[in-house]
Amino acid sequence: MTTFTKGLQGIVAAQTVKSLVMGEVGRLLYAGYSIRDLAEYATFEEVVYLLWHGELPTPDQLADLKARLAVERKLPEVVVATLHALPTDALPMDALRTGVSALGAAYPKAAQVDEAGAIAVLARVPGIIAAFHRVRQGLEPLAPRADLDYAAHYLYLLSGHEPTPAQARALDVYLLLTADHGLNASTFTARVVASTLSDLVSAVVAGIGALKGPLHGGAPSEVVKMLDEIGDAANAEAWLKGALARGERIMGFGHRVYRAEDPRADVLRDLAQTVATPARYALARTTEEYAIPLLEAHRPGRKLYTNVEFYSALVMEGVGLPADLFTPTFAASRAAGWTAHALEQVADNRIIRPDADYIGPAERPYPVVELV
Ligand SMILES: CC(C)(COP(=O)(O)OP(=O)(O)OC[C@H]1O[C@@H](n2cnc3c(N)ncnc32)[C@H](O)[C@@H]1OP(=O)(O)O)[C@@H](O)C(=O)NCCC(=O)NCCS
Fold it and tell me: Cα of 299 to ligand 1 centre, how many Å?
């Protein structure tokens, strides 16, 4: 006898050593290390190694990973040609999904379900996003460089300018904070695909598809839209009340798992202050201060607090990313988690195949029409 749980809430569908989400107390660990410590002491590449191997790298292992990522940055010609063939007003998430898919068809190494495959895909995700962003502006994609770390290199590929150390570090911390998060919708999706013994690119492409939705990875650009609409802190309360009265969701608040503040929001709030303009930061703070009690009044006891997306929006805006690249940039970090989980899934595999609760009509006769 099985019971149906909408949204699979509370259903344990995998065992993992990658990350532990402690929803009631608002804590997040990657392989035992708190996200707060990682944000203070580690870099995105160290977190990638941790997710793939379960341990932090030694200096030699880190140098080796960075070198291997750097040599895998060049995009196959067919990937660039595919991005050129897309309409310039295509959604960047659609372009990323298409570009990664083309990579899988053109570069078999990226399809391998092993660390070499994971490096081949992860190293190229920023390049695909940046190439499309340049192509849609009528610019040529830039040749990759080997002397910049993942976050700084991504910002360089977009603009042709090296970011400031503060910008590079802000994006680096954003990327490491969002690299993995338990069995979130896109990671579950990637694991389902991996469990069929499909290839790594297919798992990543499926993850991109799941991340695109506004209830998962699409929220930060909506946060920017909301802050633009509010415009001035004096309007925040009325705007939020109006949105709730219309039955709308306030983007950047609420979480499936956290019943306390999202621990990543706390780190991102401080980080946002290093790159956002003071006026933008003040508007966000005021909006947050009004939103939390209003959400409590709206759904008493539901504990709807600030989630990762709210201040992610400010950090990404602060480092110069246009709002429609926020979700692709999230994919550039979460691809580390997707690949880690895909590898973990195949290492001890059983195809993921749940049951459905059939609620349609009982068996009935086919309405055969007699021909006259
Ligand atoms: C993240 C999210 C999808 C979690 O969804 P969930 O666990 O399924 O939570 P539910 O949709 O069951 O929400 C529970 C209740 O709180 C309300 N609620 C949840 N988040 C809300 C929000 N941000 N604004 C207004 N109401 C919200 C829901 O309307 C629901 O009310 P109902 O039971 O009367 O229908 C949800 O909080 C949300 O849509 N947030 C805004 C989008 C966002 O920021 N996404 C990024 C997530 S990291």
Answer: 10
